Amino acid sequence: MVARALPPLNALRAFEAAARLGSMSRAAEELHVTHGAVSRQVRLLEDDLGAALFLREGRGLRLTTAGERLREATGTAFDQLQATVRTLRRGAGAGTRVIGCPGSLLARWIIPRLERLHADLPGLRLHLSAQDSDPDPALPGLDAVLLAGAPPWPAGWRVHALGPEQIGPVLSPRHPAFARLAGRPADALLDEAVLHTASRPQAWPQWARSQGLAPDRLRTGTGFEHLYYLLEAAVAGLGIAIAPAPLVAADLGADRLAAPWGFVETGAQWCLCTRTADDPQLDRLAAWLRTELAQGQPI
């Protein structure tokens, strides 16, 4: 039998992450290695294949024709591998429901409520998986995803609507301008450089329009790759952030953050979306989540 003549797995993983995320730095963050380690693995892969995979354009990356072909192949292969591994893990713990959700929601809203969830739903066993990209409509390896979205939904999904999504500006009482800004109307923010995140660039413009403000008058300050880091910066008093209400509810209750201008509905709904037409365990989870959101969201 002839051995498979494949490049090293680490090189393929580094390439797939960089191609999917469009950044060596973001790939390094996802893989928990240095930027240099990802670059070296990609160079190793290019040497092995005898073809360039990326074109460097300033600080950005663009895939070559060879890179596009390899991205399609590695993306499909890793998706299938991930789905199989999740299925096997789930089989090892029969009865466990695998739920995907954004990492920031998992860290700031779900994990602080896990003890209560286990007490209220003692028969429900969960495996929680951070899913920061748009979910595959087939939900490979998952029983459900928790997300904020709006129709049209993928065919075959059962969507449990949990409550309207609301977003609003938040800042820490430690912010140097807190006393000056807290009592002023929303247009006071046009004089401030606001924190923003690459994962949701439409949030500030959407809020500005809801206040009758022109989005192009907003001044953007420091940007962050993930919402979690954005909110940590806001709690530290480093700037004004914008966030979904559930993710800052605990900070508002503990006076770590304040929301002087309240929250506005985005038109999206928090939803638990499943592939299964009838699953009493997920129905119970949806009802629990709906109650928690209703009790925890400031209006």
Automatic annotation (TrEMBL):
Q: Which UniProt keywords apply?
A: DNA-binding, Transcription, Transcription regulation
UniProt domain HTH lysR-type: residue ranges: 7-64
Q: Would you identify the family this protein belongs to, as annotated?
A: Belongs to the LysR transcriptional regulatory family.
Which Gene3D superfamilies does its entry note? Periplasmic binding protein-like II, Winged helix-like DNA-binding domain superfamily/Winged helix DNA-binding domain
- Tell me which domain of life the UniProt entry assigns to the organism this sequence originates from: Bacteria
Q: Which residues form the signal peptide?
A: none
Membrane-spanning residues where? none
Query: From which organism does this entry originate?
Result: Luteimonas kalidii
**Family matches, as PROSITE patterns:** HTH_LYSR
What is the protein name given in its UniProt record? LysR family transcriptional regulator
Read off the InterPro entries from this record: LysR-type_TF_proteobact-type, LysR_HTH_N, LysR_subst-bd, WH-like_DNA-bd_sf, WH_DNA-bd_sf
